[in-house]
Design a protein that fits this description.
Elements: H1 2-35, H2 40-68, H3 70-90, H4 94-122, H5 128-148, H6 159-170, H7 172-176, H8 193-199, H9 201-227, H10 232-259, H11 262-284, H12 297-311, H13 314-323, H14 331-360, H15 364-386, H16 406-409, H17 422-427
Helix pairs in contact: 1-4, 1-5, 1-6, 1-9, 2-3, 2-4, 2-9, 2-14, 3-4, 3-6, 5-10, 8-9, 9-10, 9-13, 9-14, 9-15, 10-11, 10-12, 11-12, 11-13, 11-15, 14-15
């Protein structure tokens, strides 16, 4: 572990700053949009721009990295992300913010690709599991810390936007000053959607709908909290709980899925998330009743944590389930295909969820989550009836962030052995 930190501390520190800024920015824009009286539909449309940019960037960034190199690309797009957030504070318009969110999405997928390919290059077959685990801790921990920065100043001021820019710019310093040589970039081709569907219909369909769910959760939770008259601290607390509880849940749910039929675990998890969505609605309707009739917000936090506990590990579960039906040499390409499908769903999530909220009020947020989690569960039950489970000794659950790129999927210790770099080993 000491050797790992020595070789990669600059990258981990830089990514920590990036994710802190990302967590802060997501909540900041959601709260500010409500305060500026954007319609819920306009807010959802604006927030979906991030995933449109992420999807565009995932298809184009590998070619740019191959031509220009990791360090220049990282510096350029991290600088772009730092600049874009400042423009949000100058031009207050949902369509302009949508375009800015597209640029942020392109920038973030570039940063993820560079960071994860760099980590992959610095890893060996012995330590890549530890690298992935540490990367997960830094990602979720930094996002959680970033959520609390919402208390720094009122979202109506320009200071929070400047702070996001400053934190993003800080990420450049340790990475650009590192003496380590940048990695040799390797493009990874995803499985075609047709082949992926033939391998695992449940994997690709659930990945599509889960992308819709996750994009809505992470972009509109602060919007929901603001609409429900939560204080700024309460909004930062509930968004923090989302990130941290979801990260903690990965290990126990993953272990269960390695013992029992993985589809059953996915079905129970998704129905669990659906049930806790309904319970969150019931509790939220009681929070503002007069006097002793009011229910404490503590119950809302509890049910939301349980929702997150059931929901956030699902991408890793879906990835492991798909791997159950393929050989080890296709794990990375299948993961890249699932990430592509996840991105397709993610582009529509915030907009569709905002439509639900516009129709029935703020609790349309949880009705949306209930609806799509329910669809995944019902389709899972159907697939269990038409196809038997298989036992693939090469496949097992490995916790993965939803933002993982194909380069990051290679860090999964159950994939094919990565090529060792003798010269790098000698230098270390």
């Amino acid at each position: 572990m000491n050797k790992l930190l020595k070789n990669s501390w600059a990258l981990f520190l830089g990514m920590g700053f990036i994710m802190m800024a990302y967590g802060f920015q997501s909540s900041l824009l959601g709260v500010r949009a409500v305060q500026e009286e954007f319609s819920l539909t306009a807010t959802g449309f604006m927030m979906s721009g991030y995933f449109v940019g992420y999807f565009i960037g995932a298809a184009t960034i590998p070619n740019i990295i191959s031509r220009v190199g990791h360090i220049r690309v990282f510096a350029a797009f991290a600088s772009l992300a730092s600049l874009v957030i400042l423009v949000h504070s100058i031009i207050i318009n949902p369509f302009i913010w949508f375009l800015l969110r597209v640029l942020t999405g392109v920038s973030m997928v570039c940063i993820y690709t560079v960071a994860e390919s760099w980590l992959n290059d610095r890893s060996s077959n012995k330590n890549r599991g530890s690298v992935l685990s540490l990367y997960m801790v830094i990602l979720y921990g930094s996002i959680g810390i970033g959520m609390f920065l919402l208390n720094f100043s009122s979202p109506q001021n320009f200071q929070p936007f400047i702070l996001v820019s400053v934190i993003t710019s800080l990420a450049l310093i340790p990475i650009l000053l590192t003496k380590k040589k940048p990695p040799t970039f390797k493009k990874i081709k995803a499985m075609s959607l047709k082949n992926l569907y033939e391998v695992s219909p449940f994997g690709i369909i659930s990945s599509l709908f889960y992308g819709t769910i996750q994009s809505a959760v992470f972009t509109l939770l602060a919007v929901y909290g603001t609409s429900m008259n939560f204080t700024i601290f309460e909004i930062s607390l509930v968004t923090f709980l989302l990130a941290i509880s979801g990260a903690i849940a990965q290990f126990p749910i993953g272990k269960i899925s390695d013992v029992y039929d993985r589809r059953k675990v996915i079905v129970f998890s998704t129905f669990g998330a659906a049930i806790f969505s309904i319970l969150a609605i019931l509790v939220s309707k009681q929070m503002y009743l007069p006097g002793n009739l009011a229910t404490s917000k503590t119950w809302f936090y509890i049910f939301f944590v349980l929702f997150s506990f059931c929901s956030l590990p699902m991408f890793s579960l879906i990835l492991a389930h798909t791997n159950d039906y393929i050989s080890k040499d296709k794990f990375v390409s299948a993961g890249a295909g699932l990430q592509f499908t996840f991105g397709l769903g993610a582009m529509s999530g915030p907009f569709l969820c905002s439509v639900f909220m516009d129709m029935v009020g703020p609790n349309g947020f949880f009705i949306f989550l209930f609806f799509f989690h329910g669809i995944i569960g019902l389709f899972g039950i159907y697939r269990m009836r038409v196809r038997k489970s298989v036992d693939n000794p090469d496949s097992q659950f490995v916790a993965m962030p939803q933002t993982i790129t194909p380069a990051g999927i290679e860090l999964n210790p159950i994939t094919e052995p990565i090529e060792e770099n003798p010269k790098e080993d000698e230098n270390n």
